[in-house]
Amino acid sequence: MEIINYYTSEREVSWPRLRNRERSHVKVKALTLPRKSRSFSIKEMFFTVRAALFSFAVTTRSLIRYAWMIPAVCAAVIIPVMISHLIDYSMSFAKVVDFENGNAFADEYLNAAMSSFALDSVFYDRDGNILSSDGTLTVSSLVIKEPVTYQTYTVRSGDTISGISKKFGLSNISTLIAVNNISNVRSLRSGQKLSIPSYDGLVHVVAAGETLSSIATKYNATVEDILDVNNLASETLQKGMSLFIPGARLDSESLQRAMGELFMYPIKATWRLSSRFGYRIDPIKNTPSSHTGIDLACPEGTSIYAAMSGTVAYTGFSSVYGNYVIIKHHDGYQTLYAHMSKIIAKKNDKVSQGTVIGLVGSTGYSTGPHLHFSVYKNGKLVDPLTVLK
User: Fold this and answer.
1) Whether the predicted pLDDT of 326 surpasses 90
2) pTM score, two decimals?
3) Domain spanning 150-258: which CATH class is it, in words?
4) Which of 17, 78, 278, 282 would staple 289 via disulfide (CB 3.0–4.6 Å)?
5) CA of 385: how far to CAs of 132, 302, 319, in Å?
6) CA 180 – CA 208 distance, rounded (Å)
7) Half-sphere exposure of 72 toward its Cβ, with a 13 Å CA cutoff?
8) How does strand 303-305 pair with strand 333-343?
9) Which of 64-73, 274-283, 290-299, 319-328 is predicted least confidently?
10) What would the pLDDT profile of 176-209 be if each residue is shown by its tens digit?
11) Where are the domains of the chain?
12) Could you give the CA distance from residue 251 to residue 259 in angstroms, rounded to a whole number?
């Protein structure tokens, strides 16, 4: 017989499981089934808290164990994107541009590509002769009285080539440029040392087979002056010897190159430099990209001028550069003018510096009217601001 425990209000009794007929004759008073009461001890509370803390620790450890996956996933997504941008950026600067081949301007390439030293104003003429404050030519006669001597000068903030030359009694800026082998005046910085000769002139390195007479003829100088200024007792020369040639000067093209004046600005009207050369944030996609030139923002219809004399090598339309003109210049230079509203120049046209070749517009990949201007040297990009006057 199965035994079932019951709780009464007075005491606990064992109640045999009876048959229904027998159970009906049994009388039980005050039969109830209340819940058992339990007291919550401190020990049980301790074990409960400990279990909760253990569960929290296990969960935290699991999260920490897999936390590395979050930055790993981010890196897996971001790094390939960054690498692709860097590859595109490098390609746009390393790829040699073939201006005779139309596919050089295929859209995929265009999408990928898309000093404390003061500069003189008009204080010298095209030949480098220093002008007075009223614009007149400073005339000085060259008289050789003693051998050439040199002083060292430290460039200061605000200095100019013409100012330094005048300070030391020189009359042509090409002297300092030639003697100090300055390839670009814009690269000069405050604190740089310059060698200042006591006469105007330049240094010539004697080549095999040259004579004093041939050198004098080349620079329109006299043999006597070359002998005196270099303190030479005879006309015997040796290959590699450095001679100071008094009164000699750089040709105008070399001078302009050194002064960063090979190119004039292609816009004469008022403009705003809206984007520089090099790495930037794309104004439309808002993503990092390389910029192959400079952007000069100005009203639509503004005249665009050839920055230097040359031959129009290409004209056309690109979904990126819109209407564009390419001009081939001497010494391996090419210039690109883009986003034109109208092309005026024609292929194979011979243009002079300052010739109108088109009008400013906003064609192609553009956010507003501006001129995109790029400069190439032997097929490689050059920052236009380093060669513009």
Assistant:
1) yes
2) 0.44
3) alpha beta
4) 282
5) 28, 20, 26
6) 23
7) 5
8) unpaired
9) 64-73
10) 999 999 887 867 788 999 999 999 999 999 999 9
11) 3-66, 68-114+261-389, 150-258
12) 12
Is pLDDT above 90 for 47? no
